[in-house]
Amino acid sequence: MKKRMWSYMGLSLITGVIAIVAAPNHNAFAGTVKVKGSYAETFASVNFSYDGVSPATLGTHAGIDNIGGPFTGQLLAEYSFTGGACRAPDGTQGLSFVLVQAAQADNYLQGQLYAVGTGAADGRGCASTTTGSVGEMLTLAIVGGTGKFANASGSIKLTFTAEVLAAGQAFPAGSFGIFGDTHVTKTGSVTCQNCNSND
Question: Is the pTM of this model over 0.70?
Answer without folding.
Answer: yes
